[in-house]
């Protein structure tokens, strides 16, 4: 599950009370490993995702940030001028050794019991924080830069593509067996804008990974990607993550057979009764077909999600076989009709 380690788990909240700084929890190896393993020990998913943040590598390129519990990420010196952009430097991976150490430790801890996953933010998504200086609902500053100073925005995005591409390689060389690129705010762009301001830089990162770490699976996810699927299919990613607003059958048809899919159960289903979770999982798995599908949510686990529901999600997935899907779907249809 995306965001499978976090505040919905009592074990995490207890640890967070003891270590209230998010930066500390996500930048100290012992804490990263402990938090990353919490959901694996509780639910035994097939993937162990390193507990981190898409902003974690920013100080290594010259952008400091803080996390405010109420406001989220804060960058006090945003990158909004040529002078400030010129201060960005190539990524200093020595400042990210805690990530490498954590991935190596996780590989030792889980052995062959699960795949260890790393992740990064896409250049456009990271640039929204660099330029806006904080979370935003309007993206006025960065979208304004698209028109008022496109050369500056291009230079920022290109710098991020180079740096985060190297960071992906670093994660893989440290032990990540699969990596995911989150274009969390890619869906805030029109499809034509995404082609200009996001896709080329994602493609550049993917080429870097394929050149230096061939064969490692790459997953690409963009929140609100219903209008982007066809454009995402030829980025070079091996797997395209669907958000919950896309019907899995429709997504499969639009993407074709050249890529695998990930997703895409609505995270809010986990607030419902067990039968509704089972129904949602069966529906997604049936529509995804018999190959090239990673079952996941269509977005991250929501705060307040019952842990018993998360457990049922994974138990349902483990109980399924392709020959069961038809009969289960028929049972649900009959129940709905009655």
UniProtKB/TrEMBL annotation:
GO MF annotation list: uroporphyrinogen decarboxylase activity
Uroporphyrinogen decarboxylase (URO-D) domain: residues covered: 117-133
Chain coiled-coil ranges: none
Enzyme class, spelled out: lyase
Main location group: plastid
Gene3D superfamilies, A to Z: 3.20.20.210
Pathway(s) the chain acts in: Porphyrin-containing compound metabolism; protoporphyrin-IX biosynthesis; coproporphyrinogen-III from 5-aminolevulinate: step 4/4
Any single GO BP term: chlorophyll biosynthetic process
Catalytic activity: uroporphyrinogen III + 4 H(+) = coproporphyrinogen III + 4 CO2
Source species, domain of life: Eukaryota
InterPro entries: UROD/MetE-like_sf, Uroporphyrinogen_deCO2ase_HemE, Uroporphyrinogen_deCOase
Keywords, alphabetical: Chlorophyll biosynthesis, Decarboxylase, Lyase, Porphyrin biosynthesis
EC number, UniProt record: 4.1.1.37
Keyword NAD: no
Cell compartment(s), UniProt: Plastid, Chloroplast
Gene Ontology cellular-component annotations: chloroplast
Sequence similarity: Belongs to the uroporphyrinogen decarboxylase family.
Quaternary data: Homodimer.
Function: Catalyzes the decarboxylation of four acetate groups of uroporphyrinogen-III to yield coproporphyrinogen-III.
NCBIfam families named in the record: hemE
Name assigned to this protein: uroporphyrinogen decarboxylase
């Amino acid at each position: 599950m995306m965001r499978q380690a976090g505040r919905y788990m009592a074990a995490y909240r207890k640890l967070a009370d003891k270590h209230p700084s998010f930066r500390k929890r996500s930048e100290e190896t012992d804490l990263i490993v402990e938090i990353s393993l919490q959901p694996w020990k509780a639910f035994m998913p097939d993937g162990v995702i390193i507990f981190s943040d898409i902003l974690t590598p920013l100080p290594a390129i010259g952008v400091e940030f803080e996390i405010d519990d109420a406001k989220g990420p804060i960058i006090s010196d945003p990158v909004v001028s040529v002078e400030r952009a010129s201060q960005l430097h190539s990524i200093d991976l020595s400042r990210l050794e805690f990530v490498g150490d954590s991935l190596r430790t996780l590989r030792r801890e889980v052995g062959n019991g699960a795949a260890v996953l790393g992740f990064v933010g896409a250049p456009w998504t990271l640039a929204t924080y660099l330029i806006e200086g904080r979370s935003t609902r309007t993206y006025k500053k960065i979208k304004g830069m698209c028109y008022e100073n496109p050369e500056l925005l291009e230079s920022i995005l290109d710098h991020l593509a180079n740096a985060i591409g190297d960071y992906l390689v670093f994660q893989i060389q440290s032990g990540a067996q699969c990596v995911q690129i989150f274009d969390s705010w890619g869906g805030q762009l029109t499809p034509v804008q995404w082609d200009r301001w996001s896709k080329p830089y994602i493609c550049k990162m993917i080429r870097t990974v394929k050149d230096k770490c061939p064969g490692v699976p790459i997953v690409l996810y963009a929140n609100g990607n219903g209008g982007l699927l066809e454009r995402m299919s030829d980025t070079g990613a091996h797997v395209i993550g669907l958000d919950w607003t896309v019907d899995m059958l429709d997504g499969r048809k639009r993407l074709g057979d050249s890529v695998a899919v990930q997703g895409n159960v609505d995270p809010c289903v986990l607030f419902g009764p067990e039968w509704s979770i089972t129904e949602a999982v069966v529906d997604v798995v049936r529509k995804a077909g018999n190959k090239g599908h990673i079952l996941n949510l269509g977005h991250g686990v929501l705060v307040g999600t019952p842990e018993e529901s998360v457990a049922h999600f994974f138990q349902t997935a483990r109980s399924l076989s392709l020959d069961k899907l038809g009969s289960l779907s028929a049972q649900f249809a009959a129940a709905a009709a009655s």
